[in-house]
Amino acid sequence: MSQTRILLVRHAKTQWNLESKLQGWKDSKLSASGKRHFQNVDFSRAVHLAKTEHQPSHPPIYCSDLGRALSSARIIANQVNGYLIPNDNVRERRFGELEGKQVTNQVYWDCYHRRFDQPFGNKYGAESDSDFESRIASFLNTLIKRHPFETVWVVSHGEWIRTALNLAHGRKGWEIGEGIPENGQITLLDMKSIK
């Protein structure tokens, strides 16, 4: 069975990240400091370290179609001479009514703060755990079939990457697992398939 090497990258820090606002499917621009930090990451070194047998000279960079991920993916594309493939299956989880609101300790946010202890469900109009996990698994399985023995980039979001790693390692999607990656963090994932 073929294996695909995936370089998962969380988008650069946004204004809403700085303001502790939950983004989900809503968007905010990259912060000036987040963009600078992201531009200083040596993504070409990651390509060299993650080199595979059939390394394309212009690597595909799959990314969420949300602005913060697209802007971040463009920075990577400029460094590694890659090309962008926006895909709505790489979007962050939809959090419904909580999107655009500042994360606090109020009762309203209780289900969000306990999301690593139990399934979040579809409270407040959020995307259900099963729908979110199915979307990620379907995308990753398609990616593996399309790019056997290659290294590809996926620029996405914190909850998406955390859940993808959980599924790849046989954990429940809602568990904390390796936690939410930092903005600009690169995580290497070698994959054959997700069940």
UniProtKB/TrEMBL annotation:
Keywords: Isomerase. InterPro entries: His_Pase_superF_clade-1, His_PPase_superfam, PGM_Phosphatase. GO terms for cellular component: cytosol. The keyword Isomerase applies. Its EC number is 5.4.2.-. SUPFAM superfamilies: Phosphoglycerate mutase-like. The keyword Magnesium does not apply. CDD domains: HP_PGM_like. GO terms for molecular function: isomerase activity; phosphatase activity. It is an enzyme of class 5 (isomerase). It holds the Pfam family His_Phos_1. It comes from the Bacteria. Substrate binds at residues 10-17, 68. The active site is at 11 (tele-phosphohistidine intermediate), 92 (proton donor/acceptor). This is Putative Phosphoglycerate mutase. It comes from Vibrio tapetis subsp. tapetis.
